[in-house]
Amino acid sequence: MNWASLRTWHRPLVVFAAVMVVWAAGSAAGLLLDDRVLMGAPIWAKPLKFALSFVGYTLGLAWMITLLGRARPRLHRPAWWAGTGFVAAGAVEMVLITGQVVRGRRSHFNNATPFDSAVYQGMAFMAVALWTTTLVIAVLLFRARLADRATTWSIRIAAVLTLTGAGLGFLMTRPTAEQRAAALDDPPITGGHSVGVPDGGPGLPLTGWSTTGGDLRIPHFVGMHALQLLPLLALALAALAPRFVRLYDERVRLRLVLVAGAAYAAVLTLLTWQALRGLPLVHPDGATLGAGAAIVLAGALGAVLSLRGGTAPVEEGHGDAGGEVVAGHLGPHRQ
User: Structure pTM?
Assistant: First the structure.
């Protein structure tokens, strides 16, 4: 990735990412200067986590929209508008979250007062808008070959996994078992991210993920950030290709990306299953460990099989007119 070309990427998304860097710095300062705690966590932790998440997410989208514009110029305009819509929804989301922090109130699931309820409903609408604009971009990404096949499919698979992870967030809006048992006509809190335990209990450092029950934020987070991780894997494989003979073959890199995508989907499914059963990430049961081991073994086997039969670059010599040396594929080259 050529960072010098960053200024040619989708400008609203890049600007929003820069704003989120500043927002994250301000939230970090809030952690140091404001000792208020809400639901068992420092009150400025939420805008900090959201801002940092937006930085990676929006830069990934900006890069993908740029590739799409180069590959299929006709698709650039709808992708550009979808990206701009994402920025608008994200900006409103961050303002609402931070505004509630300043007020010392919960932003998510909060219906305690008419104003709190209006804020929460606004955030829910923005979440739908973020998901929908990402869906539009994902559909457009499937209509073009953006780069080599490995990179193209890493982006497509990442888009599907990201939409799945983001969609898992809607599970948090359902009333919990405790809230349904209370049978209140107008409950002050509706929904939650923890399963089997109340929100705000003991959690992991930085993330706050529950250490006593299931936590839907974990698969939500892991799924959404497939948008960065899988394309980064494809780019890393391409960068390593000149040094490792087998990776020179695009088919090998594609197979590795497909294996990684399948393993990622399996891990996302496992984390969702674990959370819905009320099990904390750090205390898995035997079934979870067994499924995890099966994913690791299957992924390792898939990677080994993918590396078989790579093709090496071979110098074919100079052309009649003294042209450049050309690297060719002359068949399998086993190490």
Answer: 0.86
